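User: Quick one: structure for sequence A, then sequence B.

Assistant: Sequence A:
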Amino acid sequence: MLRRKISTTYTVTKQTRRGTLSMANGMILPPNKWELHDPFLMCAEDWFRHPGGFDLHPHRGFETVTIVFDGLLRHQDSKGNSSIIGPMQWTTTGRGLLHKEVPADKETNVHLMQLWLNLPREQKLIEASYQDLTKDIIPTREIKSSNKAESSKVQQTGEEEELAAKIRVISGTSGNIKGPAKNIVPVKALDISILEPNFTLEEPIPANYNMFIYILEGNGSFGDDNTKLQSGNVLISSPLRNDDCNEESVLKITNEGVNVLRVILFAGKPIREPVVQHGPFVGNEWDDIIRAQKDFYLGKFAEL
C-alpha cells in the first residue's frame, strides 16, 4: 500500500478583522492556490463575538462546510433553514443562496473553521441545500490501545482497554464507520483526537485524493517522513495517483506530546477544472461571475 508524505506545511496567523476586536481570523487554506489543494478552495479559522459574525450575504457555485469548536452559531438562509449549528453544517450553495451566520447571543464567544469546497462545472448551478450535522448523528470510531481493538469489550484479564484515539467521522469512512454528510464531490472528513502519548494511528486515504490537515491542539509527527508539527500548523499531502483508481494510501499520525493531539482532516478527489472566484461567487470562467452578479442584483437568490 502507498504511504503518504507531506508536500507542504505552514502556520496559521491570527489577525484582527474589520478593525475591531470583536472578530479575528486566520487562513488555513489561502485562496487563489486552487491547484495546490483542489477541490478545496479556501479554509479559514474565525474567532468572534457579537457584533461580529457573517451577516446576510450571497454565495454561488460551491459548498461551505462549517465546524464550530466553541460557542453557539445561528444559521439562517433563503431556503427557509434556521438552526443553531452544533457542531457542523454542510451547505450546498449551488445556483444561489443568501445566508447569515452570527453568534446565537450577545455573550457567546464563537470559534469555528469554514471550508469552501468546489463543485464541478455540471453541478455548479444545482438547487441549494443544507445539512445540519448535529452531535447525535456524527458517529465516533474508538480505537483501543490493546491491539488497536475497536470495541468497548474488556480484555480476557478483566481489565478495561485504554482508549487511545477517537475519530468523529463526518464524511466518508474510517474503519467500518461511515459519516452522515452527503457529498457531491467525494470527500473524507474526520475530527481525530489521539489521546495516548506516542500512539500511532494509520488512516487509509484514497491514493488519488488531495488531503490537508489542520492541527487544532497538541503536537505530533505526520506522514511516512515523520514531519513534526504542532498546534496552528497546516499540512498538505498531494495525490499519489492521478487516475480514477480505487487504490488506498496510508497516512501515519503519531501523538508526540503528553496531551491530546487533535486534528481536522479533509481529503477530496480533485476536480481538475479552471476556477474563477470573485467575492462570494465561484465559476469556471468570468462569464459565470458576471451572471451570478446579475442574478443576485435581480433578486433571484430569494430573501430571508
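Sequence B:
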Amino acid sequence: MTMDLGPIRDKIDGLDRDIVALLNERLALAAEIGKLKRSTGGQIYVPEREDAVLRKIVSLNQGPIKDEALQAIYREIMSAAIALEKPLLIAYLGPEATNTHAAAMRKFGASVEYHAMATIADIFTAVEKGEADYAVIPIENSTEGSVRETLDSFVESDLKIVAQIYLEITHALISNSPLDEIERVYSKDQALAQCRHWLQRHLPHAQLIDAPSTSRAVQIAKETPGTAAVAGELAAQFYGVPVVERNIQDKADNTTRFFVLGKRPAGAVGNGRDMSSFIISLGDESASHSGALLKMLMPLAERGINLSKIESRPSKKRPWDYYFFIDVTGHFEAENMKDALAELKRFCPMVKWLGSYPVANG
C-alpha cells in the first residue's frame, strides 16, 4: 500500500514556519523587556512570572500534547528569552551530569551557563559574592532525608530561596561490560543505598564501592573493564557509556527536592501557591518548657498557616540548643504571616526568613 504523505508534510512545514516566526517574535518582545529591566535594575529571572506562564499555557492546552511536555517546551522558550535579556550563570553542586545538574537544567533550560562547584558552602559563597546569579542545591530526598550541609549553610547566609524543583530520581546501571561480567559497582553512597536490593538480587557477588559522585563513578566505569556505575542516564549520555539496566532504584517514588537560591526574594504568586521557609530558635525556652515547641507552632496554626515540614538541627553554639527549620504555606508579605511572625519574635530569639517561593510546577 502506498501512502501520499506529501499534503500532510506540507501542512507540517507550513506550521513549522509559523511556529519559528512566532517564537522569534515572542523572544524579540522578551528582549525589549530585558532592556527595560536592565535600565531600572529589575530582576531578569522572575519565579512568580515563570509560575504564571506555566499555569497559563496548561490552562490553554486542549491536547493531544501532555501538560508535562508543554511545560518542558515552554521552559526552554523562557530559557532562550532569559539568555537574550541577560546571560545568567547558574552554580550547582557538581560535578557535571549529576542529579543536581539535571535539576538545574530542568529549571533554567539549555540557554544559560552552568558552573559545577565542589561543595554547598562554595555555592553559597559564589552567589553571595556575585560570581553566580543563582544556585541550585539539594535540600532533601524522599528516601534518604535532608541534606544537613544545606540546612546548616542557611544559618549564616542572607541568600533567599526563590524557587523549588522536585526531580524524580531514577538510577541506571551503566557499564561497558555486560551484566554477567560486572565485578565492581561504584556510586555515591546514597545512590548505592537506593538500589541495594536490586544489586543484591542481580549482582550478589559484586563489590559495592563508594565514589565521590555518581558522575565520577561513570568515569571509573568507562575506564575499567568489569566495572559498573549507578547513576542517572544524563551521566551515561554525558560520558558516552552504555546503559545496561534502567530504573534499578528500589522505590518507584524516589524524589529529590532542590532549592534555587538568589540574592533578591521572589514576589508573591497568590491563590494559595506560595510557600515560605524559616529558621526558628527557641533558645533557653526549649530546654526549660515541655510545651515550647507547641507554643512556637500556635501563632501559625491560629492564623490558618499550614505547616508542611519541620526539622531540628543542633545550633552548635551550646549543648541541647536547636534550630527548627520549617516550611509553611503562604508568602512572607501576607498579613497573617506578618502577624504570626511578630508574635513569634516576642519569645523566640531567632526568627529568620529563608525565602518565599512558588509551589513547584510539574
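The longest strand covers residues 160-168. The two ends are 42 Å apart (CA to CA).

User: Thanks, that's what I needed.
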